[in-house]
Amino acid sequence: MARKKPVSPFSDKQIADKQGSTNFKTEHKSSWIPMVIMGLYMAVHFINNMNSIDVMGPQWLYLALLDILVVVYTWARKDLYKDVIITIFRQLYSKLYLSLFLLAGLSIFFAMNQVEAWVCFVRFIITIIAFFNLAVLFVHQQGSFTLICRLLSAVLLVESIQYFDKFFDGIAETSLGALVNSLNGNTGNKNIFAASLVIKIPFVLYALYHAKLAERIFHILALTLGIATIFMASARASYVSLILVSIVFLGFVLVKFRQHKKADQLLLQSAYLLLPLVSAFFITQAINTQVTTLQESNSGRYGSVIANISSIALTNDASSYRFKLWEHAFDYIAENPLMGCGYGNWKLASIPYEKEYIDDLNVPAHAHNDFLEHAAELGLLGGLLYLSLYVCLFFCTIKTLRSAASEETKLIALFSFMALIVYAVDAGFNFPIERAIMQVFFACVTAINLGTYIKGREEVQVGDTKPANKTFTLAHPLYGMITILMLLPATYITYLTYISLKGQLRVVPDLKNEPMSIPLAEVKTMFPPIPNLTSSSQPIEAILGRYYSENQQYDEALRLLRKSIPHNPHIYYSQFLMANVFFNTNQMDSAKYYAELAYYNKPRANTYYQTLVAVHAKRRDTAGVAKAFRTYTKYRNEPFAWNLYLMGMLNAQQRATPELLKLADSALTLFDRKGNRPASEADYANLLKRKQEITSNLNFSGAVGNSVEQNAAALQKATQIYNEGVAAFAKQDYQTAAAKFVRAAEINAFNYAIYENAGVSYFNMKQYRRAIYYFDKVIALKITNDGKSEFFKGVSHINLGEKEVGCQTLQISKSKNYADANNIIVQYCK
User: Fold this and answer.
1) CA–CA distance, 235 with 229 (Å, rounded to integer)
2) Residue 545 pLDDT class (50, 70, 90 cuts)
3) What is the separation of C-alpha 726 from the centre of its chain, rounded to a whole number of angstroms?
4) Considering Cα of 264, then 267, then 271, then 272, what sign does the dihedral take?
5) Which tens digit of pLDDT belongs to each residue from 62-86?
6) Contacts of 799 by beta carbon, 8 Å cutoff, 6+ apart
7) Which of 149, 490, 649, 682 has the fewest Cβ atoms surrounding its Cβ within 10 A?
8) How far is the C-alpha of 160 from the C-alpha of 156, rounded, in Å?
9) What is the mean pLDDT of residues 747-775?
């Protein structure tokens, strides 16, 4: 038999058209069911963080519950869906998707952190079941596609209006760049937010293509504001997606023109996209110009659409560090080609690659490329399976377009594949795999595209007399039973994750307080056993250990800290906290071991550097302080590093030296407020303060140009004056005692007891402001850890009517186990 010539896409002369149009009219009667369900899935857009630290917590929980509801519905409607289910599972795409799903599940047993792998895998369960739910509903309900497109057009319009409302509310108080980065809808990330807007564009274009005049006005408005919001979001990957969608759509319009030779139709359909594009461009430029003028500052690429487009380039800087992330992922894949680090565990495996590039405790949670991330977590097979999903749907779309299917079926195939292109671009530059909103779109777009492919094949096979394959009668009940059995534990784990994220919203900010304000008894009940990492990949049990440490329960703190090390072995947060425990308990050898272990594995972490300098200073190890300083400034040559180094050397040496004075001058020159690397006002003031301390000590001790004998004589004189002050204090002659202590401090600036006694003398004279000045000097030296200076400083603030700061300082004194602190807190701070 001669091979049939492929039918031209979108041809009006197709045998199947008449049958196809009849089907669509019939389907429309029941199309409200998938429409309602699609609306429920799209409602995830409007779920906020609900008192959790990350919006994805409540969003994933919502999707899990919705999956159960839809499965129960399809299970109950056996008459409609029993044959459809087996048809879906027979498709190559479904087999590839299930293979990837099974491989991800298998990887849990090899994961670095199996609990974290389960937390991420349940999201895969929720997504794949959402896909099958939507595919089952959509296969014979293509008539609902127009309704879905109208729904998404309305969602796009609402999101855009909300964006501009918040934008204009915040622009008077927030810089343009900061405001743009903070406006991300309910996606948690501006790049994901922009991608979630672009992926709706093909649906709106389809609605426009079929709409009449009044409805077209609505869709053009939605499209214009949607594109303007995309421009304002300044996410360059979304610009790439928008360009590709525009090219495909305009290519489609040109194909239609070649078929029908109607110039007016060509201009009208091109205007559907070009008019909103041009309008959005001028709207955005006008807003950016006004904002730049209002704020009287250069907003960089955030102030110009053209600047954003011009900044798109294949360089590491232009890609916001993505090239380096991809390079690290390739290196890991090359070292682990068969089985990677386990599903959801790239956030842990990537840390050693990034330790010299990323500051503090920030973690590169994703490779910013889902294709590479799948390969890194699941091995090369996992990466190829993930890529094959897109390749499979590409060929399905091509087959549908080249078949004799109805024109409407082809249009749905094309426009749904345009949406898949948007998702693929986002997957190549970001991490949509983690975000609930984008996974809803992935399930929706792939289900629609696959359903259209199946529908197209059925249309082509109309009149085929071959006997149909026998349907596996248990497919329908098995689908319902298996999916429910999977969703129940998935929902439970997702619920526990949401509870943990709610706890993190309170605890993570509290970690910056000194002392931490949430009672230990409350913190202990906040976190369920799953997950064992925070949203920023810090071990939760290590955080609990820190609370135990602050409450002087050091044995339990160390138990939790040691237990938490395997949960994220590369962040060294547990070891850092162990160093602090040993520092507070004066076990300096252990403190040195763990402080060095933490810092030299995370050399850009400022808190690790600070702890190591404090440990070396207390051990009088000037070489250790100098080594830590050289390492830190290799990566981060900042005022913070110099200030801490000068303070650490002063404490370690217990005296100033001409060399330290030269270093202080070098720091002030390097970070001059009018130089090339200006320090902030506070940082520069700290450096000036260090220089003043050094100069004061040098001048009064006679160290500048003096001999060792002269220096020794000066220190002997300081001791004599100090002893005279002690004698005067014993006689309750606080005025004389204070004067003696101050004079002694001028000679020996690094004996904390001199400052502390001066402060207590002024305290007894009720000169509380002067007393606070000397207590601050003791605290700044970071030599003593008994909480005495904090106690007297706190009481001084209370006596001055400054209750809030006084109580905060008393809490620090209490955390250092000072005996009288709790009594004052009970009396004045409740």
Assistant:
1) 10
2) very high
3) 56
4) positive
5) 999 999 999 998 888 776 777 788 8
6) 766, 768
7) 682
8) 6
9) 84
